[in-house]
Design brief:
With 179 residues, this protein is mostly helical. The chain has 2 domains: 102 residues; 66 residues, no CATH class. It contains 12 helices and no strands. Helix 6 runs antiparallel to helix 7, helix 8 runs antiparallel to helix 9 and helix 8 runs parallel beside helix 10. The N and C termini lie far apart (63 Å).
Length: 179
């Protein structure tokens, strides 16, 4: 750790030279933690640019998803995030309605779109994201009838007629409707 100070006590560096001096003795995870504590997009971006190990990059992505969407997309573009971390990020992104991050993650082969009993499909259906619903139900891992057609119910509650039609066109949904 820099000068044996606890990470919380390190002053916010102001220039690239100061950043270089502060971070030279930090591990990747300590650098990410410092950026999080200081709520510094600049420092987090610096950390991402310098190259982080997979664990630190995943933590940076979680933070950026909540704080800075452009940085989150930049991190996703590195292609170095494991599937479990992507699942965490999708959960956070859905809670914050960060559609551009979700759309990027869905395209990554490491991501399991059926994570958490098809949470992403339920989110997309309830929030009117018809293109995302179409993309998700075309993935064989996604079950649109999961949890007693919860995705369809969400679309109905919020009156997303287009999504209702999309879901009803899938035989897995029709075959699971209980009268």
């Amino acid at each position: 750790m820099a000068k044996n100070l606890p990470i919380e006590k390190i002053l916010k560096p102001k220039s690239k030279k100061e950043i270089d001096e502060v971070v030279k003795n930090l591990t990747d995870l300590e650098l990410v933690k410092l950026a999080q504590i200081q709520k510094s997009v600049e420092l987090m971006s610096y950390a991402v640019d310098k190259g982080l190990d997979s664990e630190a990059l995943g933590e940076a992505l979680l933070w950026a998803t909540g704080e800075e969407e452009v940085l989150a997309i930049k991190i996703l573009n590195t292609g170095n995030i494991d599937g479990e971390k992507l699942n965490e990020v999708v959960s956070l992104a859905t809670s914050k309605n960060k559609v551009s991050i979700i759309e990027k993650i869905v395209k990554l082969k490491e991501f399991d779109p059926s994570y958490n009993r098809n949470q992403l499909l339920r989110y997309a259906a309830s929030n009117g994201h018809d293109l995302l619903v179409k993309e998700l139900i075309n993935d064989h891992r996604v079950d649109p009838s999961d949890l007693n057609n919860a995705a369809l119910l969400g679309a109905q509650v919020y009156e997303h007629d287009k999504i209702i039609k999309i879901l009803m066109s899938d035989p897995r949904v029709k075959n699971n409707i209980k009268v």
